[in-house]
Specification:
There is one protein chain. The chain is α+β, with helices and mostly antiparallel strands. The protein has one domain: 2-Layer Sandwich (60s Ribosomal Protein L30, Chain: A), CATH 3.30.1330. The chain is built from 3 helices and 9 strands. The strands form 2 sheets. A 5-stranded mixed sheet has the order 2-5-4-6-7, with helices on one face.
């Protein structure tokens, strides 16, 4: 069973047959969390570093690094009892989506915001594949926590 994690969405599961999957990460960043102890997995698909307003953060908390990571960790704890200390964290995406023309550097800003949030939460990143100029599809096996990444060039 595939659980699709769209832009600005967060999903968690402890169903062994499930796979969490997000498609075509360019400047967006996916953060994965896995508890080997509880065989539970989670993923959030972050689009921007921070919201333009508190209302935007309330409406779409998974959309932003500043609120999405806390949402993911809270869901893992609330639904499966996962402690932050037992989670294996992965960070993927954050490409330069427009190559030389990416004036806003959203990918780099997303990576920096995610890493800053993780550091503030005293979480260590166990797996990372970020930057570059490729689109990434990320799939996480809930039974094992294994993450598979497929890439393709970003076409503009």
């Amino acid at each position: 069973m595939e659980i699709i994690v769209g832009i600005g969405e967060c999903a968690v599961s402890n169903q062994a047959e499930a796979k969490l999957k997000t498609f075509a990460l360019a400047s967006c960043v996916a953060v994965t969390a896995y508890s080997k102890i509880r065989k539970a997995a989670g993923m959030v698909h972050i689009a921007l570093p921070s919201p333009p307003s508190e209302e935007a953060a309330r409406q779409r908390p998974a959309y932003y690094a500043s609120t999405g990571l806390a949402l993911l960790l809270d869901k893992m704890h609330r639904e499966f009892g996962c402690l932050r200390t037992e989670l294996q964290i992965g960070v993927f995406g954050g490409a330069d989506s427009a190559r030389d023309r990416d004036y806003f550097s959203i990918g780099k800003k997303n990576i920096a915001a995610v890493m800053s949030q993780l550091s503030a939460m005293s979480l260590t990143v166990n797996s990372i594949e970020v930057g570059g100029d490729v689109s990434r599809t990320v799939e996480m096996d809930v039974a094992t926590g294994k993450v598979t990444i497929t890439t393709q060039p970003i076409l503009i």
